[in-house]
From TrEMBL:
Residues 40-165 form the OmpA-like domain. Keywords: Cell outer membrane, Membrane. Residues 12-22 have a biased composition (Acidic residues). Pfam families: OmpA. It comes from Pontibacter anaerobius. InterPro entries: Bact_OuterMem_StrucFunc, OMP_bac, OmpA-like, OmpA-like_sf, TSP_type-3_rpt. PROSITE patterns: OMPA_2. This is OmpA family protein. Coiled coil: none annotated. The keyword Acetylation does not apply.
Length: 171
């Protein structure tokens, strides 16, 4: 434990939670939240958004860059929080291929955020889920043309933001 010149434990962010007990020593919180600020409503809503992808692609489309820029700003506001970037694919293709594609999608979003200047990029965690977590169940007996809209909803990257001491939902 570091102590200041006054002999008291150091509290870098001045929130009353000593750094040795503070899960977020760079941003003020409360004792109840272990020194971490709670996410504001706008940030929670932002984190619920999805980045969609074209079929068989892992390129971030221009239409999603404003969303990702807003997430970059939110990450600046919460410098101690960790962002889980969750990649997904539709069912077309093998499970192995879709797993790799979902991982590439998550990595593409991470790389964009890093390019935009996210501080401490090691707090950006990626995970690919392949085709295992569809948002929309698709009738696989129908033609690809008839199921395109439903499958497109499953080709996405989602987010989860949490404090460093809490477990991210990696399942």
């Amino acid at each position: 434990m570091q102590v200041g010149p006054d002999g008291c434990p150091v509290d870098s962010d001045g929130d009353g939670v000593p750094d040795n007990e503070d899960a977020c020593p760079n941003s003020a919180g409360t004792m109840e939240t272990k020194g971490c600020p709670e996410l504001d409503e706008a940030t929670m809503k932002l984190i619920e958004e999805k980045v969609r992808f074209e079929f068989d692609r892992a390129r971030v489309q221009d239409s999603y860059k404003q969303l990702l820029d807003s997430i970059t700003v939110a990450l600046q506001k919460y410098p101690d929080h960790v962002l889980l970037i969750k990649g997904h694919a539709d069912y077309i293709g093998s499970e192995e291929y879709n797993q790799a594609l979902s991982e590439r999608r998550a990595e593409a979003v991470k790389e964009y955020l890093i390019q935009q200047g996210v501080q401490n990029p090691d707090r950006l965690v990626t995970k690919g889920y392949g085709e295992t977590q569809p948002l929309v169940k698709v009738n696989e007996r129908l033609s690809r043309r008839r199921t395109e809209k439903e499958r497109a909803q499953n080709r996405r990257v989602g987010f989860e933001m949490n404090t460093p001491d809490m477990q991210l939902d990696m399942e």
